[in-house]
Amino acid sequence: MGKVEIRMDFKEELKKYQEIVNKHLEEYINKEKCPEELLNQSVEYSLMAGGKRLRPILVIATYELFKKDIETCMSYAIALEMIHNFSLIHDDLPGIDNDDFRHGKPTNHKQFNEATAILAGDRLLNNAYIVISEELKKSEKEELPKKIKILEEFSKAVNQMIVGEFVDTEFEGKQISEKYLEYIHKNKTGALIILAVRMGAMLANASEEDLKRLTSYAEKIGLAFQIKDDILSEEGNQEILGKPVGNDKRLEKCTYVSKYGLEKAKEILNGIIKEATEELEIYGEKAQFLIELANYIENRNK
Amino acid sequence: MGKVEIRMDFKEELKKYQEIVNKHLEEYINKEKCPEELLNQSVEYSLMAGGKRLRPILVIATYELFKKDIETCMSYAIALEMIHNFSLIHDDLPGIDNDDFRHGKPTNHKQFNEATAILAGDRLLNNAYIVISEELKKSEKEELPKKIKILEEFSKAVNQMIVGEFVDTEFEGKQISEKYLEYIHKNKTGALIILAVRMGAMLANASEEDLKRLTSYAEKIGLAFQIKDDILSEEGNQEILGKPVGNDKRLEKCTYVSKYGLEKAKEILNGIIKEATEELEIYGEKAQFLIELANYIENRNK
């Protein structure tokens, strides 16, 4: 995965990262099979449904700013992707967002049933900690204080995400202040994206200064990601997105689009992405993938 | 909490343990408040609903077989109680058991709503790991390998519990083989009870031999606990239990009572409790509380 002399096309590089993540997720799935085939299928169905793998890729690409041996960060990368997928399964449930489609396929509870979806989500959330505890057990003693700090950040970011989702649910169909809209975005989406970048940096022993700079990059792309999601929910292509467009409007969800209108939301998004990429200029060539990833967040169509 | 010369009445001692656990849970609740009052209320509602605190008490009482400074094991004790409560909230959901009452009060989703109950359960599951990671951060370096092993056992036992609940759900309304009935009991209830005892022993640096003996005690009381639950669901007092009696029959759940009949189930229960207490004879006086706790599991009316 080291950078080659002549840079590959960004999309090709992104695909390479996705394949690495998928390979490790498949290894996890094969290793962690429980005796209940249907529960395994339900976990695998969501985990391998073709997500973008943004969070684990951020872990790896940030790690690569400083170090090459990416195997060191893979457990944390896939644990994070498991958390992300747990949150999707639970958010889609009839009791929360009641969504029927995700990545162009029926949501977990539609494909299986509600009980299976609840328990598959619980299992993914919990098993992220199995993956991390197994990694800790194999770690060198001198690495443990750093990794325990990462575990703490990990668990606190997951808590933030759950609280963010709760507030999002609470405000459905209600007028929302700018303050709360930011609060939801920061917690529901931002927390795991910031965690991804910080884990990559901390695992690679980045300096405090680097960590601060990269955290700022992550805060900005996290917000940008959510604004872009809001925009896609409004004007995206349903077939490409794999889920219904206009759902936010139907549920009267609070979004950047409903708050500021489509054009202004795009303007805000563009400004934030610019700020994010400026944070990385100091790293030169090495940061090219992370810069392009920020641009990809702005320009993606799903 | 040290044992006094003249033993207190068992019920009084049990109450003392419960008060210690409740005090620590309240401290956690006050410390971990998120900005969302309703989500805090929902977590507190279930966590402080008056459970027996069997699991955390087993951690503490097992620890006390070897050591006195119980503060050392309190984080693990309350993390385990949080896991237990997460599982109750999710199991009660309409998509799983669809129960309306628990501890004589409306279940979490009845008191609040489904979204809140799902997310409060997620939060409890996840925050158990916050509690443990904070404890690890404060630990002496030389304690870490042992405690990381405990974290791994913890996460794997939670996984077992989730899988057990899944199988229980799967078999609703179906004929079940003895093998599967045991499988459900071992995983759904047994895993956390075994974990409780093993954590107490490991935290107190018990020998391998002690650990083996105590694991056997835990396996037996775990099975006994579930058989007694099945019996109470059949012939318990609805007002004392705080939940409807005969629910298992309504849902055609597989239980020891539906499998063996009431009398035979009681006979099996009695035999298992005897075996459990025999494991502890070697510890003499010191094990009196754990022996009486086994008898309490057999004779409890809620």
Structure description:
- The structure is a homodimer of 302-residue chains.
- Chain A is mostly helical and 302 residues long.
- Chain A contains 14 helices and two strands.
- The first copy, chain A, has helices at 10-31, 37-47, 54-63, 71-92, 108-111, 114-138, 144-170, 178-203, 208-235, 238-241, 247-250, 256-260, 262-279, 288-299, and strands spanning 101-102, 105-106.
- Chain A has a two-stranded antiparallel sheet with strand order 1-2.
- In chain A, helix 4 (71-92) packs antiparallel against helix 6, helix 7 (144-170) runs antiparallel to helix 8 and helix 13 runs antiparallel to helix 14.
- The first copy, chain A, is globular.
- Chain A starts with 9 loop residues before the first helix and ends with a helix.
- The relative contact order of chain A is 0.12.
- The model of chain A is unreliable at 1-6 (pLDDT under 50).
- The interface between A and B is large, with 51 and 51 residues.
Short description:
Two copies of one chain form a homodimer. Chain A has 302 residues and is mainly alpha-helical.
Largest sheet of chain A: 2 strands, antiparallel
- Assembly state (oligomeric): homodimer
Biggest interface, CB < 8 A: A-B, 51 and 51 residues
- Indicate the mean pLDDT of chain A: 91
The number of helical segments of chain A is 14
Beta content of chain A comes to under 5%
Total beta-strand segments of chain A? 2
Summarize the helix and strand pattern of chain A as letters.
HHHHEEHHHHHHHHHH
